[in-house]
């Protein structure tokens, strides 16, 4: 399945996948999806990405006025299933702050 994701979706999906609890085999599969979604050094520099530790958890911050073009990704059915599971089971979304990145992702991923 092909998905076109902007940098906000990529960063948030990467964080959401990183918060999953799973067995070692599943964790390795999650890492593979995270590696696919990860921004490269040049992309990080463009949006002025910074990482900080808060209560032992890494948090990504970037300049919201800076943008990267959306990028197309090809995911296997197993990878799509992992992403769907992460999205459908996460109970920490906030209606207003997450709508901008989550709503278009749900429309393209869950309604197919």
SSE layout and pairings?
Layout: E1 2-5, H1 7-18, H2 24-37, H3 41-46, E2 50-54, E3 57-61, E4 71-74, H4 77-89, H5 99-109
Antiparallel strand pairs: 1-4, 2-3
Helix pairs in contact: 1-2
Main sheet strand line-up: 1-4
Query: Average pLDDT, to the nearest integer?
Result: 90
Write down the oligomeric state.
Answer: single chain
Secondary-structure element order, N to C: EHHHEEEHH
Query: What's the helix count?
Result: 5
Give the distance, in angstroms, between the N- and C-terminal Cα atoms: 10 Å
Low-confidence stretches: none
Q: What is the total tally of β strands? A: 4
Strand content: 15-25%
Question: Mind telling me the C-alpha Rg?
Answer: 14 Å
Provide the structure class: alpha+beta
Helix content: 40-55%
Overall, the morphology is globular
Largest sheet: 2 strands, antiparallel
How would you characterize this protein structure?
With 112 residues, the chain is of the alpha+beta class. Helices cover 50% and strands 16% of the residues. It contains 5 helices and 4 strands. It has helices at 7-18, 24-37, 41-46, 77-89, 99-109, and strands spanning 2-5, 50-54, 57-61, 71-74. It has a two-stranded antiparallel sheet with strand order 1-4. The mean pLDDT is 90.
